[in-house]
Hints:
The structure holds 2 protein chains of 2 kinds.
Chain A: H1 2-16, E1 26-34, E2 39-47, H2 48-58, H3 71-84, E3 85-89, E4 92-94, E5 96-105, E6 108-115, E7 122-130, E8 141-146, E9 155-160, E10 165-173
Parallel strand pairs in A: 1-8
Antiparallel strand pairs in A: 1-2, 2-6, 3-4, 3-7, 5-6, 7-10, 8-9
Chain B: H1 3-16, H2 22-31, H3 39-61, H4 69-89, H5 95-123, H6 133-164, H7 169-193
Helix pairs in contact in B: 1-6, 2-4, 2-6, 2-7, 3-5, 3-6, 4-5, 4-7
Amino acid sequence: MKYKISMFLVLVILFSAKSIAHPIKMSTGKVSYNKEQRNIEVTLNFFIDDFLQHLKVIYHSQDLDFKEMSKDALSIVEDYIRNKLKISVNFKPYELKILTTNIIEENVFQVILILDNFNPQYIKTIEISNELLIDAFKDQSNIIHIQMDKDSESQPYRFMRGNTYKVFKINYQCN
Amino acid sequence: MSDIGFYFKEGIHHITDIKGYDHMLFIITLCAFYRFDQWKRLTVLVTAFTIGHSLTLALSSLDILRINQSLVETLIPVTILLTSIYNVVAKAKKDRKFALNYLLAMFFGLIHGMGFSNFFKSMMMGISDTSIVIPLFGFNLGIEVGQLFIVAIFMAILYISTRIMHVQHRDWKIFISGGGAIMSLSMIINAILSI
C-alpha cells in the first residue's frame, strides 16, 4: 500500500512538473551614465517568451525572432519600447534609440538604448514612465535600478499597473 | 530607497502576497498542529523552516545549487499536502517526534527556499553584474519579517478561536489542515489538467 502511494505521488510530480511553474511577469532594467558615450544608457531585460509573444500579437508579425534580429525586428522592438517607456531628464523628454540587443540568458532578451540628442551637463532629475508589457499582463512588474555610476546611490523602483510614473532625484554632474 | 530597503520590502511582499499564497499556506498549515501554549515549540519549528529556506535561497540565488524550477514549484504544494496529512494522522507528541517535526520543517524549508530563489533571480535578471549579496540579504530578511507577521496573525486568530470562542484545538487543527490539503491538492490537480 505504501509502495502504491509512493508511486502515485511520483507520477503526480512527474506529470505536473512541467505545468505548475509559477508564472512571474517581470522585466528588469538599469539606467546609468556612460562616460564614454556621454549619454544615459538604459538596459532592459525581458523574458523572451512573454515579450516575443506580445510583440507578435500587437504587430501581427509571426516571423519575429530575437535570435536573428532583422531590421524589421529591431524596428518593432524600438517602436514598442518608445511607446511604452518614456524618459525625461530635467523634465525634458528624449527619444530612446537602440544601441544593441542580446540574448543574455536562456530566456532573457536584453536591449540597450541611449537617449537621442542628449547633452545636459548636470542631471538633477530623471522622470520615467514605464508601461512595458503592462498592456499584456495585469500582474506585470518592471524593476528599474537608477544608478549613474558605481559610486552613486542605487535607486531601485518597481513600476506596475497603477504605478507607472516616477521622478527620481539624481543630482549628478556629467563629465 | 536603497537596495537593501527595496529588496527587504520585496521579500515581505512576496511571502505575504495573497495571489502567491503557497508559502503562506505552508506556514499556516505547519502552525496548525500546535496549541497556543506551545508557542515555544512553534518558534523552534518556524526557525527550522527559516534555516532550511535561507540556505537554499542563498545557494540557488548564487547559482551554487541548480534545480529544475518547475519541479520545485510542484514540490511546494506537495509539502503543504504532506504537512496537512501529518497534522491529522500524527498522534501523541514525544521529544523524538518533535525532532522529526524539526527535521521535516527544515527539509520542507529547503524546497521553499528554492521557490523563493526563482522569484529573486527573476528580479536580478540581466543586472547580476552588480553584487547580489546585499539584495539577497535584504530579500531574505524581508521574508523572515513577513513570515513572523503571518505567524503572529495566525496565533492571534488561534487565541481568539480556542481561548475566547472555546473551539477545541483538535477541530481547529483538522479545519486548518483540511483547508491546506484541499488547496494544495487543487494546485496539483490544476497543474495536471493544464498539461
